[in-house]
Each structure stands twice: as C-alpha cells, then as structure tokens.
Amino acid sequence: MSIPKTHATATAAPGLQVDHVNFSYGGTPILQDIALSIPEGTFVSLLGPSGCGKTTLLRLLAGLASPKSGSLSWRGAAITGPALERGVVFQDYSLFPWMSLTQNIVLALSKAHPEFDHGQRQNLAEEYLGLVGLGAATGKYPFELSGGMQQRGAIARTFALGSPVLLMDEPFGALDPLNRAKLQDLLLGIWSGSSPRKTVVFVTHDIEEALYLSDRVVMLGSTPGRVIQELDVPFPRPRQRRELVRSPEFAALRQRIDDRFQEDLIERIEAESLITSNADGI
C-alpha cells in the first residue's frame, strides 16, 4: 500500500491566507488584526504563550469557528467550514472510544478515500500506526492506551488522510521527550517526502521545537493575540538535531525570540498599569 500523495494543480495556487482577522469570545477580544500569508508547501509554527490565541487561530483555519471580521482562504477559496483538505490534530486526541485504533483510522479513510476498498483502508491504517510506533496496538481501544499513545493514534489518522494542509495543535505536548523527538522527525519526513509538500501550521509554545521544525515562525503576543513578529528560520534542511541545537546561531535566534516575547510582556504590563493609573485618577 503506497502512501497517499497530494496532487499538484496545473497552475501555482495561493496557499493559506489570513486577511485582517479579528475574533472575540463573549465580548472579550481574542485575536486582533491577524494578517498572514502562508505559501503552499511551507512549514509555519505559531509560537506564543498560553492564552495568546494560537489554538483559536488554528480553529479558524480549520473552519471550526468564524471570525468576527476579516477572512481566511485556502488556494483562493474562502474557508467557511471543515474540509478534508485540511487535516487537524487536536490536543485532546478526538478518537472514538468505542472503536479500535485501526477502526478510527479506517472510518476517516472511508470519507477521505472512498475509492479504496476496506482492505486497502485497513492496510493503510496499520501502516501509519506502525510509523508512529503503534504497530503492536492496532486492535486496542483508546481507553486501553496512555494519553501519549492516544495522541500518536490521532496523529497517524491525520497523516493517513493525505490532506494537503496539516493543522497541528501542540500535537507532541503529551509525549515523553524521546517519543516527541521521534515524532518531530517523522513529521518532517512525511512533510519533506510528500509531493508536493504539505502546508503545515503547527501550534507550539516551545521555541526550540518551532526552530527545529519550521521554515517560518509567527510570534503571537497575548491580550489580545496579535502578530508581534515573523521570522524566517535560516537553517538549511535536512537538519541534524544535535548539531543544530548546539550551534551558536541556533542559540542566538532562540534568545532573540525569547527577548521579543519578554519585551512584549513588559509593554503589555506597562500599558495595563497606565490604564489602571488613569482610571484611579478619574
């Protein structure tokens, strides 16, 4: 069973576009004037502290929520709801508890690849479960697995769909360091091996993870979430983890990102203090 490939269009098409998006929840601003252009085939990380709206932005890109204003599109078509072309990996696994791991993936494949017969879907499901280290757990149910194993099952399901866009919400956060590193490398292998390359939007609060994986890092400040900086990651591919994380260039860029977040935090604290002082003086 060969791995499903995404197919190139006849002419170059735009990728993901976020056009001055604002989002509020219960009257509280969550995202403010988010404008992004993510070309097809690029790997972009949304990096920021908890509460900055990273997951909300991912949900908007998935079509699971609608902006208060602004628009989002994929290949020039407006995003108005979920679609198989945009595969999503959530933090909460989203596996059906009454189905085995294989059955969860086969069900998803029946929607994404109706041209496959049941045997093909079964083989593909088992292939991807093997890739994420769950080859011995194909018949197990989610309640029989640890949280990290459930997350690997959810990742295998999304990989198997062959969607041209992967939207990933801190997918490795529940994993131990070894499995986290293995799945980072697996993700890079699938991304670099797809033809054409998939477009990945990856949510994380881990600076090193963002720099190791990404072509570009989008930094979001909080209260409300807004883009405070975008950085191209200059390290050539393929990347060797040991050499990269020990390099002075990596350390310098990591520090630059951390400094920018600290600067934004101080600016927000000072702005809130000024507002409070003015209110007290009324």
CATH topology of the largest domain: Rossmann fold
If you compute it from the alpha carbons, what radius of gyration comes out, rounded to the nearest whole angstrom?
20 Å
CATH top level of the largest domain is Alpha Beta
How confident is the prediction overall: mean pLDDT?
Answer: 88
SS elements, strand count: 10
Low-confidence stretches: 1-12
**Helix amount:** 40-55%
CATH superfamily of the largest domain: P-loop containing nucleotide triphosphate hydrolases
How would you spell out the order of helices and strands?
EEEHEEEHHHEHEHEEHH
Instruction: Kindly estimate the percentage of residues that lie in beta strands according to DSSP.
Output: 15-25%
| Structural shape | globular
Q: What kind of sheet is the major sheet?
A: 6 strands, mixed
- Put simply, the count of helices is 8
Structural domain tally = 2
CATH architectural type of the largest domain: 3-Layer(aba) Sandwich
Descriptors for this entry?
globular, alpha/beta, six-stranded mixed sheet, 2 domains, single chain, Rossmann fold, four-stranded antiparallel sheet, 10 strands, 282 residues
What does this structure look like?
By secondary structure, this protein is an alpha/beta fold. It has two domains: 187 residues, 3-Layer(aba) Sandwich (Rossmann fold), CATH 3.40.50.300; 68 residues, no CATH class. The protein has eight helices and ten strands. The strands form two sheets. It has a six-stranded mixed beta sheet, with helices on both faces. Strands 2-1-4-5 form a four-stranded antiparallel beta sheet, covered by helices on one side. A hairpin with a 4-residue loop joins strand 9 and strand 10. The protein is globular. 37% of the residues are buried. The N terminus is likely disordered.
